[in-house]
Amino acid sequence: AMERSYMSVFLLLIVISCTLAKDVGKKETKETTAKPKLPQTLSRGWGDQLIWTQTYEEALFRAKHSNKPLMIIHHLEDCPHSQALKKAFAEHKDIQKLAEKFILLNLVYETTDKNLAPDGQYVPRILFIDPSLTVRADITGRYSNRLYAYEPSDISLLYSNMQKAQKLLKTEL
């Protein structure tokens, strides 16, 4: 009888330790899979302290109702040109400050609005839309084959185009 109770206790201990080991394993995998990547904010790295809209429709609505111009950045996460421009944009203090006066949207997908691709669907591409919801086709970068493209070296041109989008707003409306 003594042997039998020892055996029961021994088996009980094995069952308990197996159960605990399983739970510990579960916890570890949960934490390790969740930890490495921080939740993606709407800024996608273009300026985490700025307020970004989620959709094109929301951005248009906000531009119209706040009387602020809309700045749309088309880019792709795996495009080296987009990544380089994003870095230059995020590190440029004046651009980050001026960007606060815009409704902001960065898209990693194309919209169905053909006005957002006046000369083709390429990235990175930055367009401005005024509060009357008119695409500002006159505010362009320096490339004749990709009018709305900017390179990191064009960051000062982008800044002056942002200023232009703000100025025209005051004079036209």
What is the structure about, briefly put?
With 173 residues, this protein is mainly alpha-helical.
CATH class of the domain at 56-166: Alpha Beta
Please give the count of helices: 5
Number of strands: 3
Distance between the termini: 96 Å
Strand order within the widest beta sheet: 2-1-3
In CATH terms, what is the architecture of the domain at 56-166?
Answer: 3-Layer(aba) Sandwich
- Output the CATH topology of the domain at 56-166: Glutaredoxin
What structural category do the secondary elements indicate? mainly alpha
What's the alpha carbon Rg, rounded to whole Å?
A: 26 Å
- Main beta sheet: 3 strands, mixed
Mean pLDDT: 85
Sum up the structure in keywords:
elongated; mainly alpha; 173 residues; 5 helices; Glutaredoxin
Overview of the structural elements:
The chain is mainly alpha-helical. The protein has a domain at 56-166: Glutaredoxin (3-Layer(aba) Sandwich). 47% of the residues lie in helices and 9% in strands. It is built from five helices and three strands; from the N terminus they run H-H-E-H-H-E-E-H. It has helices spanning 2-34, 56-66, 80-91, 93-99, 155-172, and strands at 70-74, 103-107, 125-129. Strands 2-1-3 form a three-stranded mixed sheet, covered by helices on one side. Helix 4 (93-99) packs parallel to helix 5 (155-172). The longest helix is centred in the first third of the chain and has 33 residues, at 2-34. The chain is elongated, with a radius of gyration of 26 Å. The termini are far apart. The model is unreliable at 27-38 (pLDDT under 50). Belongs to the AGR family. Residues 1-21 form the signal peptide. This is AGR2 protein. Keywords: Endoplasmic reticulum, Secreted, Signal. One of its GO terms (molecular function) is dystroglycan binding.
